[in-house]
Structures are given as C-alpha cells and as structure tokens.
Amino acid sequence: MNQDPPKWPLKLLRFLVKEEYREEIEGDMEETFRFNLTRLSPAKARRFYAWEVVKVLRPILLKNFKTTPTFYHYAMYKNYFKIAWRNLIKKTAYSFINIFGLGLGIACCVLIFMFVQDELSYDNYHEKGARIYRVIHGEATTTDPENGTFAYPPWVWNNAPIGPALKNNFPEIEKVVQFSGRADILLTYGDKLYQEDGIFFMDSTAFDVFSWKLLKGDPKTALAAPYSIVLTETTARKYFGDEDPLGKTLKGSDSPGRGNAGDYTVTGVMEEVPANSHFRFNALLSLNTFRKSRPEIFDYWGYVDTYTYFLVKEQFDEAAFKAKIPAFLSRIRETLDSRYMIAIEPLKDVYLRTTAERQPGETGSLPNIYVFSLIGLFILVIAMINFMNLSTARSMERGKEVGIRKSIGADRRSLITQFLGESMIIVFLSTVVALIIVLIALPNLTGLTGKALYIESFLTWQTISVFLGIIFVIGMAAGSYPALVLSGFNPVLILKGITRSNAGGANLRKVLVVFQFTLSIALIAGTIIVYYQMNHLLDKDLGFDKEQMLVLDYNYDEIVNQKSGAMKAELEKNASILSVAFSRSVPGSYFPHAGTAIQTPEGEMKNMGQAIFQVGMDFVTHFNMKLVAGRTYSREHPSDSTQALIVNEAAARQYGYNNPADIVGKKFDQWGRKGEVIGVVKDFNYISLHKTIEPLTLPFEAYASRYVSLKIKTGNTAETIAAVEEVWKTMVPHRPFLYSFLDDDFNKQYQSDFMFKRLFTTFSCLAIFIACLGLLGLATYTAEQRTKEIGIRKVLGADLGSIVGLLSRDFIKLVFISIVIATPISWYVMNRWLEGFAYRTEIHFWIFILAGCMALSIAVLTISYQSIKSAIVNPVSSLRSE
Amino acid sequence: MKKTKLGEFEELVLLTVAALQKDAYGVEIRRELEALLKTTLSVGAIQSALKRMEDKGFLTSEFGEPTQVRGGKRKRIYSTTSYGRKVLSEMKEIRATLWSSIPVLAHELKVI
After folding, report:
1. Residues B17-43: what's their mean pLDDT?
2. What is residue B1's predicted lDDT score, i.e. its pLDDT?
C-alpha cells in the first residue's frame, strides 16, 4: 500500500495555498498524515488527509487570484464607449465604408459558407451512411487482377449479378441494395396521366440501408412484391389528392427493357427525398417487377442496367476488404471478360469525389467549392484591408488622444484594449449589417445557385460558435495593427506637436492596396475568361443543327413507333415543319454503349466499344450533318435496315483508318447484325463540350426510337407547336405531349457551369465594389491631409489637372503594380479551370489588359471624384485657419 | 485592548505558543490543544489562527529544522512578541477583575 499522502489533494494544496506558507502547511499535513498512519488504516488516513486539505482552504491561507482593484474601471470603459461612438458619428463616411464594406464582406462569406456547407452535407442524413459503399465497375489496364487500374473512367452503372456475388463472397457485407438505371414510365390513375421521369426499380432492402422515412406502409415489405410502388408525398398527392393511396392501383406503362406494363399497387408513401441526396426520385418500383419481367438479366454479367450499393457490418476494415477484391475478381473472371474490374466507393465520396461516370443523379464539383471558398476568403480579406487601411490612415488624428491618455496614466495594455474594443464594436455593427444582407439575399440566391438554402438548417450550435469565433478573429485581425501602432506613440513627442511621419504605416497601406487590387484584377480577368468560355460553349458549331429543333419524348412507346411512318407523313404536310425524324436519342441526352466488331485495315475483325446513336432514315439531312465518305441510309437499298452501318470519324480512327473513306465497305458485326460500313459522318459533338468527340456508331433502328425531332421554320413557333399537338392528340391520344427544344436540352448539360458563371460574376463584382469603397475612403483621407498643400499649390498657380494628377498618381502606380502581379496568377488559375473543358477558348493577353484597364478606370473614377472635389476648393478657405 | 481583537480560540493558541516555547510549531500546538480541549482540531484551523495573529503582530516565527517525518519540510517555530504577551496579560487582568467583581452570593446561588 502506498504510504505517501494522496496525490490530487496535495496538488490542490500546492496550487491554492500561498507560496510562503506552503512548506510549513505541507509539512504539518504530512506529519499529521504519518501519525495517522500509525493508528488508522492507510486508506482512512488518506481520506482524512483529503478532508484536512479541504479544511485548510481558508481565505487567509489562500493565494490572491484577483488583483485588487485600484481604481474605478467603469468610468474608463464608459469613456471608451463614448469616444468610440463620437468617432463613428464624426466621420460618418468612414464609418459607413467600414461597417458596410465589412458587413458586405461578412455576408458574402456567410452565403458562400452556406453554399459550401450544403454541398458538403450531401448524403449525410443517412444514419448508416458511414457503412454504405457502392461498387464501381470498369475495364482494367491488364489481365492481372493484382495490379489493374481502370483503363477508362469507371462506371457506377453496370451488371446485376455482382450484387449476389459480393454478398456470397464477403461476409463483411450485411445487406446489398441494387436498383435499375433511371426509368421513365407513364402512370395512370383514373383520368390523371403523367410521365414520371427518373424513377428507379429498387431492391426491397432499400429502407434498411438508406434513411428515407416511410410515412405509410411497412418498410420491410413495401418493395418486396412485384408491381409494388412507393410514392413520395407530392407524387401521391398528385395522383390521389387527399385520398389514402395505400392499396390503390396505378396503371403503369412498360418501361422498355425493364418492366412490362402492369398494375402497380401502392405499398408505401415516403417523405420527399432530401434535396442533398446524390440521387432523387418521385417514386420507387420494386426491383422484383424488373426481375419478373426480365429474369435473365439478373444472371447475365454482360448486361448493364444496375447500380449496386451495400451496407457493411459494424466492424469493417476497408483496407482488408479492398485487399480481397483481386482474389474475388480472378474467381469471377473465369466466366467473364478477363479485364472486368471493380472498386468500392464510400457513400461520403459519391457526390464530390467520384470519378466514375453514369451516375444515378447529379454530382458536385470539389474544385468549384474550392474556388468559391477562396473567393469568399478574398472578399473578407479585401474588406478587412479596408478597415485596417482606414484605421491606420486616421491614426495620426488620434495621436493627441493617445498622448493625453498616456500622460494621465494609461498604460499600453489599456490602450490596446481600447482600440481593439473599438474595432470589435465596428465588427459587431458589421455583423448586424451582414445578417440583414444575408436574410435579404438568401431567397434570391436560389436563382443563382439552383438550390434552396434555408437559414434554419444552419442554426446549429457548431455553426454559430464557429461564426462567433470568426467574427472575433476578424475584429482582432482588423484591429490589431492600429491598436499596436497607436498605443506605441511617444506621448511627449505627440503632445509637443512633433508628428513622426509614419512611413512604415504608409508603406503597409500601399502593400495592402496592391494586395486588394491584385485580387480584384485577378477576379475581373477570371470573370472575363469564364464569360468567354461559356459563350464559346454556346456558340461553337457542334456539327449538327440544334436551333429550331423541336423534340417530342414518347419514351419508346410501341404504338407511337408503329405509327411513326404515318405520323412523319402527317407532320410533314405542315408547311412550317421542314423535316421529321425518329431516333432513339437526341444529342445531349443519353447514349448507350455497344461492342462492335469491324474489319481492321489488316483484315481481322476487331471488337471495340463505343457509344451508339440509333437513327431513322433521313437523320443526316435532318440534323444537317456532313457526310465525309460513303453514303447514308437510303430507301433505294432495302438491305440498309439490317446490313449497313454508319460511323463517325472518331470511330474510323478507332479501328485504324486515318482516311475515313477507307472504312467504307468493311465488314461489321454488331448486336447480331452483320453487313458493311456504308458511310462516315463528320465528327459532331453529341455530348457536352467538356468531353472530346468519342467514337460513335449510328446503326439504323426505325422501330425502337424514343424521340421525334422536328425541324421547324422560324417564326410562329407557338402555332407550329399547337399544330403538332393537334396531330399528336389525334394519332396517339394515350401518350402525353411532352416537348422541348433541342438547344435548351443540350445546354442543360452546362447547368452547373452556368451556375458557376453566375456565382463567380456576382461575387467578383462584390469584391471589386468593396475594394473601391476602401480606395474611396483612402483617397478622401489623403486629400484631406493635403488640403493645405493643395491650397498653397493653387496660390502659386497650379491648375486643376496638375492637382488631380498629383492626388491620383500614387494610387495609379499601385494599380499598375497590381496588374503586373495579378496577370500570371489569374492566367495560371484560369488555365486550370479551362482544363475541365475539352473545347476551350484561348486565354488572350488582351483579357488581362482589359481587366487592368477596367480596374484602373474604376480606381481613377473613384479617386478623381475626391481629387477634383479638393482641387476646386478655393484656397482661401483651406488656408485661412493659419 | 480597544483596537486589537483577540478571539477566544486565538487566545488559546497564543497561550499554547507561549507555553510550548521552542516546541511551538503547528502540529505540536494542535496536539497540546486537542489534549486540553478534548476535541479534534484541523490543521487549517490552527494555521489560520496562527497567520491571523502573526498579521496582528502577536506572533513572530522562523524556520526550524527539517525532519524526516515531515517529508523533509522545515517546521516553523512560533514565538510570542512582547506586544502579544502584553495583550495576553491584559486579557488575564480584565478577566481577573471581572471574576473578582462577581458577588459571592450570586455565585453560590447559581451553584444551588
């Protein structure tokens, strides 16, 4: 047993008892303790010791932790507040620039923070989120399972048998949930008929894995039986109004390749899928519907139409799991393509960090988040620099105050407290301004970002404490320099009237102004480049006509396809419709992949994969594509429908033909069709300009189309649409008339780019505005300082121009320096941004000259207002005081 | 006796210090008083009384020898100052005067 006094009471004693008594009291305590050990058990003696320590805690024996107050603080602080308030009121313009500028800066930061926070919050609501993973599939670079990496960007969307295979081979997996690709289906209830886009055939385990709330129905069985449907609240209301949807029947059309038409029973109603989900939907159909309609797909490794997610057990070792994948791959490769490869991706990475393609929904962009965070930081820094500049510039005015305070006994510490406190007051007022701006701006931000943000979801104690912390840091950072400089003044010199020329302060101000303008110019240049790039995307010749192209979507409806010939003839009777074509896809929408074998120049049949675009008879002329070799499908060759193939130039190159004419006449084998390649079309951008044109084959497929596209004449668009609808209603009344314009559809691919452009432009303008506010303040101040100098110069004969030049010269010099610094920085950064596009504008040097000129002219305008104002003052009024 | 206040417990401690002479340090004072008063006293009680009286000028102190039983810490030996002794004797006189002024009868009556 330990024979020493207990530790923590001893520590407490040492900490609390006065230094000079410590040895004695500790000695007394220990002596008593040792004596107690002789008559009591050690444990009891130790307890006794602790109790004695408690009794030692008497005021007279304890350290003084408080310094005794020597004078009345209240009056001093009251005076600080009074002075701070008077300073704010006296210089309204400065105060406004400071408070409003900083407030705007903070507001921008808060808004950007909310945006970023929302982007980062994707899929966080899943309670088991940390345990959810998904499979990504692709083709490996080698056949060796140990060292393979993905040869092409992997796909999330792939075969179905991988799910059961994983479950059987990996005991770590608790549940697998699989679902189909996005399906579009026509649902009917009574007279209510809608096409539901982007719904999924979903496994019955979905509600065990994902945290979607089922309001009605049993989560265990809702998606079990074939032809079950779970609706979201709004969808349920759309069909059933206030009726209880549970158990009701919705007539569903077929979903081509997935589910046969049938009556779906509503087995559940769920809450809306949260907006921050990486895929969303209006309804879920049971995967067993799919399984019942096409059972063969679920054993067929080569058929791509499934997303596979899985839930792992509590103790999960990701590294160990990954290490087991090669062995698993070599087992399943025995029956499969020898380069098939999979990897797993945790749920937290699927929105922002995935590189995989064919996602079930939208994905975000991590670089954009970085860019916006950076811009937010820039804006805040610019606003803080304003604050620092104005405070240091005005420091001389307050020199006398500091001198007097010091000579009546203020020490440096209390002066620092005073000035930091003043900056805290300003920051506090700015925060109020910022919050007002945020509240006003928030509803309008939805148009800018495309997402609805609500302040309520950000009012957690974490964000509030972070916010308060940041506000405090801003106050400290912005106030520290003035506080340190002002409190360091020598009172004797100041009160004598000898004001040191504050060269250090002036230099610092110059550096800060250069810094501000560097940021501003970089942002202007960035904005110009973003604008140019976006215009480039919209204006680039895609190789086909996307203007004046009306697209009707009928989702592979068989009846429409059967009537396609008659409909084409009927529609083309209308004079304002130039041509009509049926196709499985339209540029900008979805293209499936296919494996095609084509004879190479060496004569062997080589199998390679590429996108396919199944088209009808007259598509080349219809879309105004250019044929570079061979011929297009023609009614004069009846065999064209099964024994001919058209490819694009990229596909010709893919098979080794540098001259497209050489591929014409070569044999092909695709999806059971054999024949000859009959023509090559010039490359056209069938998907977004983020990507280069990839190989494409255009097989003839008249009767498995999804879209009708109509080339229409300009003018009377509304009338034409009405006429088309009339024809549609008479010929296929069971199908809703869904139309859109091809250029709109195509440009939807750039939605996130446009959002980027809008946000970038808005925040850049704000940054420049704040920087100019600061410059205005500084210019005003300098002009005021030099009032007498200007007066004397005017008396001696200086004219307006020379005085304006005198006042502006210094600032303009700074702007020039900023241009020189900003150019390489923004060139580098924007070049990185442009690398995300396969088709990009050049960064011309004139962009930087323009940005510089803009910054310069904004600066000159800002300054000249003040310089002219002081230059036209009558010297009598500026000089009469002395 | 007008300004200096000497509490009852303080007076006992002061008397003990005077009585113990060279042995007058915290633990010994406490042991002596515990035996006399037939009660237990805490280190804190003794120490705070000592410090208070030192502040008032009734006591002085100096360090003594370190001992093993104190874990190598030195004792602080207290001794009364002449002022302290003067106050003690004043107290004694006041009490004696008061005692002597109690009528014998009253005393005896009370006893009955």
Report:
1. 89
2. 47
The pLDDT of residue B110 is 55
- Closest Cα in chain A to B68: A31
Nearest neighbour of B48 by CB, restricted to A27, A52, A60? A60
Nearest CA in chain A to B29: A28
Euclidean distance between CA atoms A401 and A398, whole angstroms: 5
C-alpha A285 chain-centroid distance: 31
Specify the pLDDT at position A330: 85
Closest Cα partner for A683 from A696, A668, A698?
Answer: A696
pLDDT at A499: 59
Q: Distances in Å between the alpha carbon of A206 and those of A177, A286, A434, B24?
A: 6, 10, 43, 83
A29 contacts B47? CB cut-off 8 A: no
Task: Verify whether the Cβ–Cβ distance B42 to A27 is below 8 Å.
Answer: no
**Is there a contact between A55 and B45 if contact means CB atoms under 8 Å apart?**
yes
Burial class (CB in 10 A: 0-12, 13-18, 19+), A69: exposed
Question: Is the per-residue pLDDT at B100 higher than 60?
Answer: yes
The pairing of beta strand A549-553 with beta strand A340-346: unpaired
pTM over 0.90: no
DSSP string, A292-347: HH-GGGGG-TT---EEEEEEE-SS--HHHHHHHHHHHHHHHHTTS-TTEEEEEEEG
Question: Is the pLDDT confidence value at B106 over 70?
Answer: no
Token digits of residue A88: 């704010």
CA-nearest residue of chain B to A13?
B44
Residues of chain B neighbouring A29 (CB-CB closer than 8 A):
43
Which of A23, A28, A60 lies nearest to residue B52, judging by beta carbons? A60
Inform me whether the C-beta atom of residue B73 falls under 8 Å from chain A C-beta atoms: yes
- Select from B13, B23, B27 the residue whose CB has the most chain A CBs within 10 Å, as the one to mutate to test that interface: B27
Beta-carbon-side half-sphere exposure of residue A832 (alpha carbons within 13 Å): 9
* Residue A689 to residue A838: CA distance in whole angstroms: 6
Cβ(A183)–Cβ(A329) under 8 Å? no
B62 touches chain A (CB under 8 A): no
Please give the pLDDT value at position A396. 66
Residue ranges in chain A modelled with pLDDT below 70: 1-2, 65-72, 335-337, 395-396, 497-505, 702-703, 881-882
> What pLDDT was estimated at residue A72?
61
Query: Which alpha helices (DSSP H) does A155-210 contain, by range?
Result: 162-169, 206-209
Q: Which residues of A140-182 form beta strands (DSSP E)?
A: 157-158, 173-180
Rounded to the nearest angstrom, the minimum Cα separation between A438 and chain B is: 60
